[in-house]
Amino acid sequence: MATPHIELQDNNLIAKTVLMPGDPLRAKFIAETYLKDVVQINGVRNMFGYTGTYKGRKITVMGSGMGMPSIGIYSYELFKFYDVDTIIRIGSAGAYTDKLNLYDVVLAKNAWSESSYAKTMGVSNKKKLAATKKVNNKIKKTAQKLGIPVHEGTIHSSDVFYRINGDEYKEIYEKQDAICVEMESFALFANALATGKNAACLLTISDSLVTHEATSAEERQNAFTKMMEIALNTKI
Ligand SMILES: O=P(O)(O)O[C@H]1O[C@H](CO)[C@@H](O)[C@H]1O
Ligand SMILES: O=c1cc[nH]c(=O)[nH]1
Questions:
Q1: Which residue in 7, 15, 96, 143 could disulfide with 60, CB within 3.0 to 4.6 Å?
Q2: Ligand whose nearest atom lies closest to the CA of 212
Q3: What is the rounded distance in angstroms from the CA atom of residue 86 to the CA atom of residue 79?
Q4: Nearest CA to ligand 2 atom 5
Q5: Which residues sit with their C-beta closer than 6 Å to ligand 1?
Q6: What are phi and psi of 67, to 5 degrees?
């Protein structure tokens, strides 16, 4: 069935596992670079989604947009109405520690957030939600096989990209043990909890709140290939 935000009628055109970058053009890049026999499965609001095969396995890649309300809508529709079992977010993140460098890959063990998403949805009053452990274990094994180092830890899912107090991250790093910041995983993990499905999040460090180094918009769209390859090679 079609939903308000995904135009597809045929559930068979969506794979059981969906890779979900925030940027719909990162989804297009992945489809064009890595997938065979690609069909476009969504274009509503330009939130591009594609299904194809990778090494013979059916896989879907679709943008989530930026922020928790946006990924909240798309991931819920995929889990609830399109029979998707697992969503792996593949995003960019800002480092909260000088132990993380540009292009390093982070695997979210938990997402801590000040967001009211999970509470408002009625799924949890907790401020920290976990990724699905069995999916994370598979991702770690795949990364090891590919020889790509992965930093596993708590991440911060924030509602705000531009903060007035640029030093606020230090307190979140210290008190919550959050090693980097992005804007979607807490809602994705809440939706997985609400629907009994699986969710994980791989991130590439795009900038640092500590050193103020940063990658370009073009690099964020096309160059974060290590995390893409880990996600594509993870057999769920
Ligand atoms: O690169 P994506 O996946 O969009 O992730 C990060 O980048 C966006 C902010 O620039 C937010 O969506 C944040 O979570
Ligand atoms: O949400 C994000 C993503 C990348 N970099 C940031 O500083 N914040």
A1: 15
A2: 2
A3: 8
A4: 94
A5: 21-23, 66, 91-92, 161, 182-184, 220
A6: 95, 165
H or E element in which residue 145 lies: helix 133-146
CB atoms within 10 A of CB 22: 21
Q: pLDDT band at residue 1, thresholds of 50, 70 and 90?
A: confident
Q: What is the pTM of this model?
A: 0.98
- Ligand closest to Cα of 201 equals 1
For ligand 2, atom 6, which residue shows the shortest CA distance?
Answer: 94
Residue 207 annotated among the catalytic residues of the structure: yes
CATH fold for domain 11-233: Rossmann fold (3.40.50)
pLDDT at 206: 98
Residue extents of the structural domains in the chain? 11-233
pLDDT for 25 equals 97
CB distance 108 to ligand 2 below 6 Å: no
Residues 65/88, Cβ–Cβ less than 8 Å? no
Q: With contact defined as beta carbons under 8 Å apart, do 232 and 54 qualify?
A: yes
Please give the average per-residue pLDDT across 87-96, as a whole number: 98
- What is the spatial distance between Cα 38 and Cα 51, in angstroms, rounded to a whole number? 6
Nearby residues of 60 by Cβ (< 8 Å), 6 or more positions away: 14, 15, 17, 18, 19, 41, 49, 50, 51, 84
8 Å CB contact between 107 and 202: yes
Residue 25 φ then ψ, to 5°: -75, -20
